Amino acid sequence: MSTFSAPKGTYDLLPPDSAAFLAVREAIAAPLRRAGYGYVETPGFEHVELFARGVGESTDIVTKEMYTLTTKGGTRLALRPEGTASVLRAALQANLHRSGSLPVKLWYSGTYYRYERPQAGRYRHFSQVGAEAIGAEDPVLDAELIILAADAYRSLGLSGVRLLLNSLGDRTCRPAYREALQNFLRGLDLDEETRARIEINPLRVLDDKRPDVRRQLADAPLLRDHLCESCKEYHEGVRALLTAAGVPFTDDPALVRGLDYYTRTTFEFVHDGLGSQSAVGGGGRYDGLSELIGGPALPSVGWALGVDRTVLALRAEGVAPAVPAATDVFAVPMGDEARRVLFATVTELRRAGVAADFAYGGKGVKASMKAANRSGARYAVVLGERDIAEGVAQVKDLESGDQVAVPLDGLVADLAARLGPGAAGRE
Ligand code: AMP
Q1: Predicted pLDDT at 424
Q2: Which of 170, 229, 238, 333 has the fewest Cβ atoms nearer than 10 Å?
Q3: Is residue 159 part of a domain?
């Protein structure tokens, strides 16, 4: 062990487990690519103000969880705690909303930072894949994103992900609801901090997980009963499209999310095998965010799915994502001439798209065969002096143990044919 270990709330991704993370990222990205979302990458840090204004001054993320720093030049920066504000900032900065038809559809994959209390499924450094559809108001878009997320979970083989759905209303209907909720909350027995929250962002009080607070919230007025006609119609539109697409959901009138910018459609994907950190992904419509960060009115919708928790959900269900084998062929040379010949073969195999590895360091045949078995390769290619003299190599099937001599000049083609089109590297 070295003197150092990873900071609290973080962990390293190492082989073989890291393969599942890549598989999850890829499984979430694949449906997005097919649906016309383009890849966007933004810096790991932004001006603090972007998140303060975008995510919300009163949210836990901004008040308690941001990693902030002041540069030597006096600029206040924050490690990004989430993706949406950055992606919208980047789209506005590049004028993407003016340079083509709307919506602008983007996806991203990255790591995020929150100074949270670490526990299983909750880290200070974690990964999300996210998608944003910027600049259009259409229930089809909300439904599209939800369907793409559901399809991603399904493609991974997860069966225990549930979708919770709600509408948070808009500028027309939310103010009256907010007032009704504030009146109700002011009558409850709550601590100082929560009382302060009633005045700043009362909806977030509904998200309080403490049992004594939850009990008092049982009779809280629900936004569902205060939605204006156009919000109701919009929400019904989204619900009908999800039903038509065969995506099951549960209406959850108490679902509010920890970020201030959501309007109308709000949703969360939860998994019951994860304990208290059950949310594997979430998102919603954020029609007012662009204006909050100085842009024009650009109604938008998006989500972020947690990669770490999706991996935990796979583990909880005992599902192994389809991970391509790291190695198809393992080369075992005996002697210097064999090393030269087999290394050329390995290079050629790799160029032909076959995943190939090599017994480095002039190990003996026993240690090399052990390494071949450990690599997970399907075939070992063994080459000794006598083989070279005869112009063949020994191809050993590591599953059956069968061994055949294959002419050296047709070796690469022979191995490629044995492995067939499903070989690791050849997708
Ligand atoms: P949010 O940006 O809070 O809506 O989170 C979206 C998703 O990111 C959640 O559903 C989680 O899967 C994941 N996530 C958020 N915070 C953390 C964290 N501290 N550790 C691990 N995953 C997280």
Answers
A1: 46
A2: 229
A3: yes
Q: Whose CA is nearest to atom 11 of ligand 1?
A: 306
Residue 83 Cα: closest atom of ligand 1: 2
Whose alpha carbon is nearest atom 9 of ligand 1?
Answer: 281
What's the structural domain count of the chain? 3
**Among 32, 128, 123, 125, which Cα is nearest to 84's?**
128
How many Å lie between the centroid of ligand 1 and the Cα of residue 306? 5
Name the band, by pLDDT with cuts 50, 70 and 90, for residue 348.
Answer: very high
Cβ contacts of 134 within 8 Å, gap of 6 or more: 88, 91, 96, 97, 102, 103, 104, 105, 106, 290, 298, 300
User: Domain check: are 310 and 400 in the same one?
Assistant: no
Residue 239 Cβ inside 6 Å of ligand 1? The answer reads: no
- Report the nearest atom of ligand 1 relative to the CA of 61: 3
* Gap from CA of 268 to ligand 1 centroid (Å): 11
Ligand 1 centre distance from Cα of residue 293 (Å): 22
Boundary of a domain, candidates 264, 285, 317:
317
Q: Pick from 409, 387, 388, 406: which is nearest to 396 by CA?
A: 406
Tell me the C-alpha distance between 109 and 305, whole Å. 10
**Amino acid, res. 155:** S
Does residue 258 have a pLDDT over 80? no
State phi, psi for 147 to the nearest 5 degrees. Answer: -65, -40
**Domain assignment of residue 4, yes or no:** no
Q: Which two tokens stand for residue 277?
A: 């950190």
- What residue's CA is closest to ligand 1, atom 21? 122
Ligand 1 centroid, distance to 152 Cα (angstroms): 17
Q: Is the same domain home to 110 and 83?
A: yes
Tens digit of each residue's pLDDT (9 = 90 or more) over 97-142 = 998 899 999 999 999 999 999 999 999 999 999 999 999 999 999 9
Pocket test for ligand 1, best of 265, 309, 311, 314 (most atoms within 8 A of CB): 309
- In this structure, the residue with its CA closest to atom 14 of ligand 1 is 306
Helix (H) or strand (E) holding 31: helix 18-34
304 φ, ψ (degrees, to nearest 5): -135, 130
Strand order in the sheet with 356-358: 356-358, 329-333, 379-383, 392-397, 403-407
Domain encompassing residue 360: 329-422
> Which of ligand 1's atoms lies nearest the C-alpha of 128?
8
